[in-house]
Amino acid sequence: MKKKYIILGIVAVAAVAAYVFTPSLDSIVRRLVNKYGSEVTGTNVDLQEFNLSLSKGEGSISQITIANPKNYSAPYLFKLAEISVKVNLKSLTSNTIIIDEIKINKPEITYEMLSLTQNNISEVLKNIENYGQKGSQASDKSDKKAESQNTDEASSKKVIIKNLVIAGGDINIIAALPGKSQELSVKLPPIRMQGIGESRQGESIPSLIASVINKILTTASQTVIKSGAVDLKGIAQENLDTVVGGVKERIKSIGIFGK
């Protein structure tokens, strides 16, 4: 009889823990992604909803958006609605959380050009580079008092992503160039990243976010340039003789003239 009651007690405690912990975990993940995503990109990142089943280790994200930098017409640089996640449940209580797989389906990226040398993706990539150089220690210290103990503990954990797959994406191109304004669309090629953070026994959450976003946006930028959807080379050639100094070098550095 005693054994029976002990087992029932364990089940009851586990049920209560699952009921209490799951919403707490979901809200912690949202806060961490929104906070560090916004700091890394220099623009607003919004994860609307995250759900994780503690019995299966499978979760889903309803929507993530990355807002455009200032002075761009499109509301979002990046938007997606379908993400599935598989988590190693045992790792949740360790210092390094292991995510077995993340599948991102049908992301929408907006590549918006204001000039030959200015576009939204390059601005965000520059913000990510600057964030990596300065680190996140200052922001971590300033926010310690404001965040709950659970959030503090979660933000100090390391993360490993074994497999990340991005498929079915579209890149919407808005080329607001003088005399050449147009809107086009090209496909984002499939992206796969494996063993993220494994070589260092886990990455910090900001570093992980920076690595994934950097890969997605760099691939999108290279895809637009290589696609020829916008005749960047022709436009640049028409205007190259009218620009001087550093501006000419910046146009060449875009890569549209080849090597």
The percent of residues in helical segments reads 40-55%
Shape: elongated
Along the chain, the helix and strand elements come as HEEEEEEEEEHHHEEEEHHH
User: What integer is the average pLDDT?
Assistant: 79
Radius of gyration: 22 Å
- How many β-strand stretches? 13
The biggest beta sheet is recorded as:
7 strands, mixed
Q: Please indicate the percent range of residues in DSSP E strands (runs of 2 or more).
A: 25-35%
- N- to C-terminal distance: 80 Å
Specify the structural class: alpha+beta
Contiguous low-pLDDT stretches (5 residues minimum) are: 4-23, 136-147
Number of domains: 1
Helical element count? 7
What does this structure look like?
This protein is an alpha+beta fold and 259 residues long. The protein has one domain (2-227). The protein has seven helices and 13 strands. Strands 1, 4, 5, 8, 9, 11 and 12 form a seven-stranded mixed β-sheet that branches. Strand 4 (64-67) and strand 5 (76-80) form a beta hairpin. The longest helix has 40 residues, at 2-41. The chain starts with a helix and ends in a 6-residue tail after the last helix.
